[in-house]
Amino acid sequence: MKVFHGSDHIVKTPVYLGGKSDNDYGNGFYVTEDESSARSWAALNGNPKHSIVNRYELCIEGLKIMNLNDHGILAWIAEVAANRGINHEAAGIAAEKLAERYKEDTSQCDLIAGYRADDSYTQVIEAFLMNQINTLEVKRLFYKGSLGNQIFIKSAKAFEQISWIDSYEVLPESEYQNADLQARREVGRFLSKRMRAVLLEGYQVTGVTAQYALRGKKLIYQKEGDFYV
Question: Is a pLDDT exceeding 90 seen at residue 27?
């Protein structure tokens, strides 16, 4: 399969454990099947002189793959919170409990697929952990940011099965940056308004909140229909 990585430099040989441990799914190499997403990531995360899309061939034969989207948004939130960490103490307590109950065992996985988070979007996860938004709103806010899906290359075996094809430079396209900035502003305004409503106006968030997910028995995700029971 063809995959792409947006960066500020050419990456011919991704290095096993050469990244940071506090990324979405841990220390590894992040790619996407969507070339337009890679172009956007390159334009946003590169610099005016070097915004690079790297193209690779990834052989998935014999690899154990987990798609977090198949396990529900709670599994994804638990995975990202466990790896990225949570700054707010109260949210951190909820994150720890959520990981105990909903984090999938990824220890034997070679690849992990799922939503892409982003440094500035961790505020969405913290708002969920503070019971200010529900799971449906988490998904809606991440879709608003058009962050897309990603594939996390995790194991040494998987690193042996990715090979660089070529790379090309993209201009730091202003439409990507402007759209991203606008989305971040809208997300920030929504979260600020919701926090005020919860703290000052007594607004009660309905649906699957962190508190609801941690109360009583573990919720079971129904992939057909995308809901919890």
Answer: yes
